[in-house]
Design goal:
This protein starts with a helix and ends with a helix. The mean pLDDT is 83. The protein is globular and about 50 Å long. By secondary structure, the chain is mainly alpha-helical. Helix 2 packs across helix 3, helix 4 packs parallel to helix 7 and helix 7 runs antiparallel to helix 8.
Length: 190
Amino acid sequence: WDVIEQHGADAFRWYYLTSKEPWAGYRFSSETVGESVRKFLLTLWNTFGFLILYANTGGESGAAAAPAAERGDMDRWALSRLQSTVSTVCDRLDDFDATAAGRAIDEFVDDLSNWYVRSSRRRFWDAEPDAIATLRECLLTVSQLIAPFTPFIADEIYFKLAGENAAESVHLTDFTTPDTQLADAKPESD
C-alpha cells in the first residue's frame, strides 16, 4: 500500500507487468517502481503534456492535417513505427506475453518522445497541423495499448484527446489493431 500511495496503482501495475517475466522472480522495492515511473510513465505524460500545450496555444490556423499517407517523412515514420508497435503488442498479448508487449510500448514512447517530438519542435511551435495530428493519433493509440496495463492514465489521455464523439472511456473502445495502410516499412527503415 505504501508503494501505491507513493507512486500510484498504474505505476505498480506497469512495473509488475513489464519489468520481468512472471516466472523470473522479482526484486521488489519502491525505488524500482519509481524507476519505471521515470522511464516510461513520466515520458508518456510529458509527451502528452507537450501535445496539449501546443495544440491549445497554437491557435486556430484553419488548416486541416493532410491524410496520413500524404504527410511528410517524419510523420509517416512515426505512424509506421506506431503500426509496427500495435502489431507487436497484439501478437504478444495474444500469446499472453505482457512483458514483451509492455516493452514494445515503452520503446515506442521513448522513440516518439526522444526522436519525433524533439526533431519536430519547430513544427509544433509553428502549429503545423500534420505534426499535431500525428502526435495526437500516436498518443490516442498508445492510450488504447496501455489500457490493460495502466487503466487510469490511459483513460485520462484518451478522455483529453478523443473529442466529443468518442466513447466515454478508452475501456469502452475496441482494442486497436494494425492499420496496414499506415504500416509503410520504408519510412521506418530510413
